[in-house]
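hey so i finally got around to running both of the ones u sent me last week. sorry it took forever, my laptop kept dying halfway thru and i had to restart like 3 times lol. anyway pasting them below in the order u listed, first the sequence line then the structure token line for each. didnt double check formatting much so if smth looks off just lmk and ill redo it

first one:
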Amino acid sequence: MKTLRYPLLIAVTAVVPSAFAEEEKVTFEDHVKPMLENKCFSCHNPDKKKGDLDLTTYAATMIGGGGGQVVDAGNPDGSRLWTTTAKKEEPFMPPEGGALSEKDLNLLVSWINGGLLETKSSIAKKSTKPKIDLAVNVTAGKPEGPAAMPEHVLLEPVLVTPRTTAITAMAASPWAPLLAVGGQRQILLYDTEQGTLAGVLPYEEGFAESLKFSSNGSLLVMGGGRGGKLGHAVVWDVKTGR
């Protein structure tokens, strides 16, 4: 049994160093430029700067084109060089010939995420754009029970005219299949699942200019009136219409 210890120890020590091997840095000169040369240089060079964009040098690539910068360090989704070649944003690039391979696209992502290195000795750049969290908490304000729908609300329109008018305000309930539409001296509530009128909220003083449901959908807030004469802010209970 003793003879098995040494081979096992040798095998383990041989694996450990590779686990800590430093990943190769992706740079413009070594990796990105050769790839761009095959796909992009014919249209984006000093003599033919399509879109006022030259990709033949690192400095020119950092400047960008007529629409501004095309790369943003650490932010592939905010880098048009990647979004257009990955077919995420138009105009798709390259416009002619074969699209970039998955390997080339991954290379671009690695370069952007790595800080847009020019060479292996370069210092990684940081994003020039503010980080904005676009995530939405879809449960914020959600009622514990069923979402509010009209239950004891008038169904008779206050005003019916021979001609319709432009819609000046509209709002959708965040939790119920309910749409509020501003009309002439009234707010119409529609059940979007049934496609039927669910209620009418009279507003004889004028016209609705803005509509908004509360976060839990139980209240409808309106701003309106008559231009240059009067203005109101009115809040209705969605269930009762009061």
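and the second one:
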Amino acid sequence: MIFIHSASSPGLSNNVSTSSKTQNLLCGLQAVGDEGQQLQAASEMCQLLVMGNEDTLAGFPIKPTVTALVNLLKMEHNFHLMNHACRALTYMMEALPRSTSLVAEAIPVFLSKVQVIECMDVAEQSLIALEMLSRRHSKTILQANGVESCLMYLDFFSINAQRAALSITANCCSSVVTDSDFHLVEGSLPILTAKITQQDRRSVESVCQAFSRLVDNFMSNPPRLEQIATIPFLKNIQQLLTVSPPIVSSSVFVAIIRVLSVLSAGSPTIALTLLTQNIGETLCYLLLGSAAPFDASAAAQLELVSRNPQELYEIVSLVGELMPALPNRGVFSIDSCLSKSGPPSVVTWEWRDDRGEWHPYSPADCKIIEVGIGEDHR
């Protein structure tokens, strides 16, 4: 006779134990009228989520737990409950990324917390949650007037909370594509302009990303560009470029120079303002390390500051945008003489934004699209 010994898998046993504990904690969160039990359950839920992941929390009841935690987050009279509920929702998004779409429904609740700083811990924890949500749900935050809400008490927050608020703003600016969207951030531009000169690198880079995205989205709208690029903005940007040692990374430096190029190309008024603000001296400093005038006879001895090719390209492009346009007659009409009369041999792919305007893809992206189409037809 053969005896078969059956033993449960340790992993399965752990999952059953976790599932049972989760259900007990969920019941505790839903214990309306017993705030002591709710607080204990919220605290233990935080511990469970901060140590968990997709594997250890398989079968986790996301929807009812989110609903219960959001209800606790609305309990204005109990700061401890609100703080633990907010932390639990944040930990849930980290451990279970698929929960983010459900937690996003609480965006208005999170925003209401950052507008009231009676309990700073709740406000700052809400900013952390909103920063995570803004990576995928920036449009929802923007349309809920989230930029203004996050920047309302910016100077009262800790440096980490300020970084979160400015990161949220930068993410939201990528969704600002129409005039109605622009009005949702217009009032916050002076605050962002002032933050360009602060010393915290991550904060400054988020501000630069915000302006870069706005300028890219409105590059064909001169009135909007002029609202973005105020005189204080241009002065602060020039000051940022000449800080030594540099505050921002090379990639952000390139983005800043490109912003100035786009602004100069899109608005002659902005280009003239830059010239009157001695942008030439700034460019001289960026290329030679000194803004002081030099004798023409010494030009042969000048040495360029060591910069990577992308930085040099953007600086020279900005110089080109600031120079007067060449005439298109006489010897300068050579381009039209050399242009092909027939259709172009290379297909250019374009994409349409929310305003109905078409924009060309880069040559590299066009090649990728062509390759993808070729594979689909195999």
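quick thing i noticed on the 2nd:
The first strand starts at residue 350 and ends at 352.
anyway thats it, ttyl
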